[in-house]
Amino acid sequence: xxxxxxxxxxxxxxxxxxxxxxxxxxxxxxxxxxxxxxxxxxxxxxxxxxxxxxxxxxxxxxxxxxxxxxxxxxxxxxxxxxxxxxxxxxxxxxxxxxxxxxxxxxxxxxxxxxxxxxxxxxxxxxxxxxxxxxxxxxxxxxxxxxxxxxxxxxxxxxxxxxxxxxxxxxxxxxxxxxxxxxxxxxxxxxxxxxxxxxxxxxxxxxxxxxxxxxxxxxxxxxxxxxxxxxxxxxxxxxxxxxxxxxxxxxxxxxxxxxxxxxxxxxxxxxxxxxxxxxxxxxxxxxxxxxxxxxx
Length: 295
What we know:
Blueprint: H1 3-15, H2 18-25, H3 29-43, E1 48-49, E2 58-59, H4 61-84, E3 91-96, H5 98-103, H6 106-115, E4 120-125, H7 128-136, E5 142-145, E6 155-162, E7 164-169, E8 177-178, E9 189-190, H8 195-205, E10 213-214, H9 221-224, E11 231-235, H10 236-245, E12 248-253, E13 260-266, H11 272-285, E14 292-293
Parallel strand pairs: 3-4, 3-5, 8-12, 9-10
Antiparallel strand pairs: 1-2, 5-13, 6-13, 6-14, 7-11, 7-12
Helix pairs in contact: 1-2, 1-3, 1-4, 2-3, 6-11
């Protein structure tokens, strides 16, 4: 079964005659008839009634049923041709934790799209533990995580590290550096940045402490920091961006949590699109004071 045979059949159905179909397809009537015969032989049944004196095409019952199938076949054929053209189009699938997508990557993605006009970019928010499965199954090209795990098939590579800072309302009278012993955990907006951060937090505030708010969606943090008494500990990339949109003050921390380390994981050799992404990310990180890039 070929595309020429399916086109021949559908054109005959559309025009109602072999003569008109042959003219529309720019072929001779015998050539068109041979295509229909070849199609019928492959299918094992007759599609059209034939006989002397029959000028307009009349489909058999099986021919009528085959019309819908022929349309589906042609649609599938068009989709297979689309796949064949994928090599000429840049495709990039990126997975990352929410704080990176919200606070670090926007300008990186904008630049990537601006400088790659044919790029088709997919961005998905995933937790670190989900990212390994995505890479292993070939569902994403690169993933950015904060909690690495061992994988035999996947390389986990450090991307950058950044200090953790104290963020609170603008009107509070605070020293240049904050010590955890000064803080009231019942006013905290807590985000589980990493296992290392959780260990630090449990040490200073106790494993059963009750913060004011616990967030899984980092983009909501800025809305809760409007209150004068609330506070949070956040990576410098997050704190800096929040300070640009919310009236807050940012302070360094004595006995601070360990730096947040961001990793990227790959399941194969990086494509040109992945290399461009890492290059633009590295340049963006240089604009954030305190961040150490390993890219």
